[in-house]
Design brief:
Distance between the termini: 40 Å
Helix content: 25-40%
Radius of gyration: 19 Å
Strand order of the largest sheet: 3-2-10-6
Largest sheet: 4 strands, antiparallel
Oligomer: single chain
Mean pLDDT: 87
Shape: globular
Low-confidence stretches: 296-302
Number of helices: 10
Number of domains: 2
Order of helices and strands: EHEEEHHHHHHEEEHEEHEH
Structural class: alpha+beta
């Protein structure tokens, strides 16, 4: 039996929300100066990127994909329900499901996996079957095992605990609904912006807008695009969507991207949004090499 080798680290259901009827999107690379049309299936994947490798054993190409699909499937159902409604608030159950999706996306980000590998192994350690799965096992313990424990109604809170989902549960969640198809998607759909009041960051404020020097412990705002006319704004305190325009939402998405930004082939709703996105992408292309270089272990930046 053939095993699919394309392992998607950006959910295909999410990319389809931004694609046309044929599953096509317009893609802008942020790590390269180019743009092109692409299909959903050819975007946001790495061959055997979620495979588990062990010395002297056959690689496991299936287990992680199957378990990740459980979270993606539950999240797709929640997002479909939100698209069919006009609600601005989410239920506790919806927050829990999408909290796990956020945790999963954060843990399996190619950039975060690269940062973890560099911090543990250094920059020049060759990748072999001994360390090839480094970072993926963290997804199992921090996201997939707690998801399974909650599904079977495990009593032990240690078994059920997902640090990211649990931390976000107490934040203010709001559904963001622009007046037209105005939002874009990227390889990193969990976009952090700024340092929360009373917290400190490792970098100047301008860098925190690119997701540098902040994390779930100190960031002020998280945005997550779900469809061209639907997104999430998650903040500390009762801030809701106040002050978040479509341009600001997209800027956070672009600034937190490490590989690509994409949208429907028809483009964005108005000229000002297109112009703002073009400027943001050019700025991200300029600053991204600095961000990648700053992940050197000796600098302690992630």
């Amino acid at each position: 039996m053939s095993v699919p080798k394309k392992h998607h680290y950006v959910p295909q259901f999410l990319l389809r929300n931004f694609a046309d009827a044929r599953g096509r999107l317009t893609v802008y690379r942020t790590d390269q100066d180019k743009s092109y049309p692409s299909s959903v299936g050819d975007l946001g994947h790495q061959n055997f990127g979620h495979s588990l490798f062990w010395p002297d054993h056959e690689p496991d190409h299936v287990s992680l994909e199957v378990r990740m699909n459980e979270i993606e499937g539950a999240s797709a159902t929640v997002i479909t329900q939100l698209r069919q409604s006009t609600r601005w608030k989410l239920t506790a159950e919806e927050r829990e499901v999408l909290g796990f999706l956020i945790a999963l996306q954060w843990a399996r980000s190619r950039f975060m996996l690269m940062v973890m590998r560099r911090h543990v192994l250094g920059r020049d350690t060759p990748v072999d079957d001994t360390n090839r799965s480094l970072g993926l096992l963290n997804i199992v313990t921090s996201v997939l095992n707690p998801w399974a424990a909650r599904a079977r109604d495990e009593f032990d809170p240690k078994e059920r605990s997902c640090f990211i989902a649990d931390r976000l549960h107490g934040w203010e969640w709001r559904v963001y609904r622009p007046t037209a198809d105005k939002l874009v998607v990227a390889d990193n759909v969990v976009s952090m912006w700024g340092v929360a009041a009373g917290e400190t960051g490792l970098m100047p404020d301008s860098w925190t807008r690119h997701g540098v020097g902040i994390g779930f412990g100190n960031c002020a705002r998280i945005t997550m695009p779900l469809a061209p006319n639907l997104g999430l704004v998650i903040t500390r305190g009762q801030h809701g969507t106040r002050g978040v325009t479509a341009a600001a939402f997209n800027r956070a998405t672009v600034y937190n991207s490490r590989e690509f930004v994409a949208h429907h082939p028809a483009g964005l709703a108005d000229k000002s949004l297109r112009s703002a996105m073009d400027e943001d992408i050019q700025r991200q292309r300029w600053i991204l090499p600095v961000i990648l270089e700053s992940t050197r272990p000796e600098l302690g930046i992630s």
